[in-house]
Design brief:
The chain contains 1 helix and 2 strands, in the order H-E-E. A two-stranded antiparallel sheet has the order 1-2. The protein is rod-shaped, with a radius of gyration of 37 Å.
């Protein structure tokens, strides 16, 4: 018998490819990310520029209509009358 001995370790070869696979972010993901950032900034600016909410209570609201009657002080338009989400008792 001239072959390898029984029980002797067999030679093995390690084969590696020249391609390295890295997980990278695709450039296409920059578009939704920029959109989310701009949308968040616009929402923040809208809330910041809205101004304070003022609540005025009248005995009767005769002549006032929601989303049509303007509140003015010294000929400056301060806002529009809005319907209350709740009704006081």
């Amino acid at each position: 018998m001239s072959g390898p001995a029984l029980g002797a370790p067999q030679p093995t070869a390690v084969v590696r490819s020249g391609i390295v696979h890295k997980r990278r972010w695709s450039l296409i993901w920059a578009i939704p990310m920029v959109t989310v950032i701009i949308g968040g900034w616009l929402a923040w600016q809208t809330l910041e520029d809205r101004g304070p909410l003022i609540t005025i209570t009248f005995e009767t609201a005769e002549g006032l209509q929601a989303n049509q009657s303007h509140v003015r002080h010294k000929d400056v338009d301060m806002g529009v009358v809005q319907k209350s989400p709740w009704r006081p008792i």
